[in-house]
Amino acid sequence: LVEDDICFESRYAxxxxxxxVSPPVLRHFVSVRVDQMVEAGFVDxxxxxxxxxxxxxxxxxxAIGVPELDKFxxxxxxxxxxxxxxxxxxxxxxKRQLSKIRRLSDTxxxxxxxxxxxxxxxxxxxxxxxxxxxxxxxxAAMTVGRFLSNEGxxxxxxxxxxxxxxxxxxxxxxxxxxxxxASS
Length: 184
What we know:
cytokinin biosynthesis, nucleotide-binding, two-stranded parallel ribbon, 4 strands, 13% strand, alpha+beta, globular, Dimethylallyltransferase, Helix Hairpins
């Protein structure tokens, strides 16, 4: 995501959709996902990448879980401790990303179309697929459709730093903006 000192530039109109999930549900999902990765062979995969003098500041070794498992492999410590650290660090990354998403709207004035996927994340199997289609895919497709058809939207020319060149962006139709604000 965008860092504080970088200014996003686009020559094209854009539509930003934020698929949001309530923090407790998202945290549980992250924990379960890490467990699934471990069950699917993540530890052995990282073990295959292990190199005594590897640089963990760049490339694949920066991936979620790799630095934590490196410490485990080097010390042959408790796997449960490494997995707990992966979960904690992944959750911290998630919180930082959420802060950046909110900052895009709050400080930069970007219009984000927030879609709440919490109920879809609570379900499993076919119910989860159906909820995802109804609660996420459907509303996202409608938002993109409105954006593409320019239904009631206002074209706005924004000055974008650092070059100050004009950029055209679209404001959402009033109904979409009101719905997005009401759900926040």
